[in-house]
Amino acid sequence: MRGYTAFVKKEILESIRTYKLLIVVAAFFIFGMMSPLMAKLMPEIFSKLATEGMIITIPEPTAIDSYTQFFKNLTQMGLVVLVLVFSGILSTEYSKGTLINVLTKGLSRHAVILAKYTVYLGLWTVSLAVSFLTAYGYTEYLFKQDGIVNLLFSVFCLWIFGAFLLSIFLFTATLIKSNYGSMLLTVMVIGLLFIMNIIPMLQKYNPVALISNNVIMLTSPYDLSNIYVSMIITGIFTIGFLCSSLLVFKKKSI
Amino acid sequence: MEKFVEYLPFLIPILVVEFALALAALVHIVRHPNYRFGNKVMWVVIVLLIQIIGPIIYFLLGKGEE
After folding, report:
1. I need a surface site. Which of A124, A148, A234, B19 has the fewest CB within 10 A?
2. Using an 8 Å Cβ cutoff, are A28 and A75 in contact?
């Protein structure tokens, strides 16, 4: 336990010193801010595009448009930024050999993996919170937020998917020593999930459901029980990946 | 001018984030003059001229090992 807390402190310090914290929070803040702004400016942008003899009619933007932009930004660019920034999660430790000293001094290997997962999950939570609060604040400022339901639940779904992504990433990082290899494998797993999403029967159980239904949830009285199945399965997979990365890392030569 | 005032609440935070990132990157470039590739002048130009993306690229790709 002492090893775990010490390693958590080391990871937090590292994410500050390598500017990871700054980058992630700044990027997510900008995502959160751009979304309401883009929704607001969209009619103006299109009206500039319209040339003579061409009429583009766009309904007055609402808070829903703002959140559509928000979830679109975060589920695409946001997750890409997350994977890019966290890409060196274990590979820099392998290549620099910084783990050898602490592991031979008696730090348990489980503590390393768990501490890393905790810190990166915390970083994801903070950045998502920053992004959501900015988006919420500016949407409040620009639009009327009537009739929006399940907003927090929708963001929570996104958070769970992020946690799932991080666990996959940690698992692939324990499997493959190189930075790009583990990134590629993660992308392949996510790609596979998206391909599986084509089959209608599996859609309900697919973790991708957590990031594809965010906007629908907000408007109509959406049946949330559809999401619970996918949520539970994603949770099980997250824990599964975490456990397997513990097992793999235990046997790994560093 | 009216438009400008309307979007002021957006412009100010963006400017703050931009300058914070650029400043952090600039200080890092000057203090740690060893990069994965490129030289000091190139990175200073990138960080100062490409807003937001420049500093992020520097921290992710250009920052050398200690």
Report:
1. B19
2. no
CA distances from A26 to A171, B8, B38 (A): 27, 19, 25
Q: Of A26, A84, A141, which has the smallest distance from its Cβ to B60's Cβ?
A: A84
Instruction: Please state, as a whole number, how many other Cβ atoms lie within 10 Å of the Cβ of residue A159.
Output: 17
Position A133: which residue type?
Answer: L
- Tokens encoding A118: 């905790």
Instruction: Spell out the alpha helix ranges (H) of chain B.
Output: 2-6, 8-31, 40-49, 53-57
Distance from C-alpha of A110 to C-alpha of A251, rounded to nearest angstrom: 11
Partner residue facing A30 (CB), from B24, B52, B55: B52
The answer to whether the Cα torsion of A39, A162, A85, A151 is positive or negative is positive
Interface residues on B facing A, Cβ-Cβ cutoff 8 A: 7, 9-10, 13-14, 17, 20-21, 24, 28, 52, 55-56, 59-60, 63, 65
Summarize pLDDT for A43-97 with one digit per residue, the tens: 888 777 777 777 777 778 888 888 998 999 899 888 888 888 888 788 888 888 8
CA distances from A77 to A27, A69, A70, A80, A192 (A): 10, 11, 10, 5, 19
**What is the ipTM metric for this complex?**
0.82
Give A30's contacts in chain B (Cβ within 8 Å): 14, 17, 52
